[in-house]
Amino acid sequence: GAVVSQHPSRVICKSGTSVKIECRSLDFQATTMFWYRQFPKQSLMLMATSNEGSKATYEQGVEKDKFLINHASLTLSTLTVTSAHPEDSSFYICSATPAGGGEKLFFGSGTQLSVL
Amino acid sequence: QKEVEQNSGPLSVPEGAIASLNCTYSDRVSQSFFWYRQYSGKSPELIMSIYSNGDKEDGRFTAQLNKASQYVSLLIRDSQPSDSATYLCAVMLTTDSWGKFQFGAGTQVVVTP
Fold first, then answer.
1. Exposed, middle or buried: residue A13 (CB in 10 Å: 0-12, 13-18, 19+)?
2. Strand B107-112 to strand B11-14: parallel, antiparallel, or no bridges (unpaired)?
């Protein structure tokens, strides 16, 4: 079946540093990828919709300059958390829909970010 | 405001019993509905999707949709300890990109042996 690989699975960083998270579709081309954030015992909150070759669409309240999204190819989208702070500590998950693939959606395995 | 509401639980269910989970949504243009299971620290796994009013059965799972009342439910029959997880209700609007979901906060289910 289709696989979405997300790396790293866990990252610990110091406050003020930047962290890049990769979301890669391994066996299909993904025109659209989504980035979610989930705090403990809370819902997955959509951060942004990433379309290949164009700027990401951010949800209300999500700082686009802090959460940089790059969808440079049909198999790779990256989320960079710039100048991370402890309040950015969260579980980040990507999902991807195959190009022309109808109603299918595949989730990455998630990245647990801890900012000290 | 678009919202998807679920009881947070925990919902304690004896092994072999039926677990009943409910979800309500606020946006009437919602057309696609999904139930996901999420284990702690893991990404969600799709259990079922439902698009039309009525019941949809898949193995031990039955999803029920009532668009007039704006609710969707999930029944888990013959609950097993491995069913212990958080169950997320997800709603997609017709006006949104396919795969752009609004998630509920999830209901934690604990199946006791």
1. middle
2. parallel
CB atoms within 10 A of CB B20: 15
Amino acid identity for residue A88 in this structure: D
pLDDT tens-digit series, residues B28-48: 777 899 999 999 889 999 999
DSSP characters over B46-108: EEEEE-SSEEEEETTEEEEEETTTTEEEEEESS--GGG-EEEEEEEEETTSPTT-EEE---EE
What is the C-alpha separation between B24 and B95, in angstroms, rounded? Answer: 19
Nearest in space to B99 (alpha carbons), one of B32, B5, B38, B50: B32
Q: Nearest Cβ partner of A32 from B45, B46, B99?
A: B99
Residue A6: its chain B contacts at CB < 8 A? 43
The tokens describing B100, both together, are 């752009």
| Nearest one of B88, B90, B105, B83 to B12, comparing CA atoms | B83
Note the pLDDT tens digit of each residue in A74-113. Answer: 899 999 999 999 999 999 999 998 877 666 788 999 999 9
B chain contacts of residue A108, beta-carbon cutoff 8 Å: 43
8 Å CB contact of B105 and A109: no
Instruction: State residue A101's pLDDT score.
Output: 61
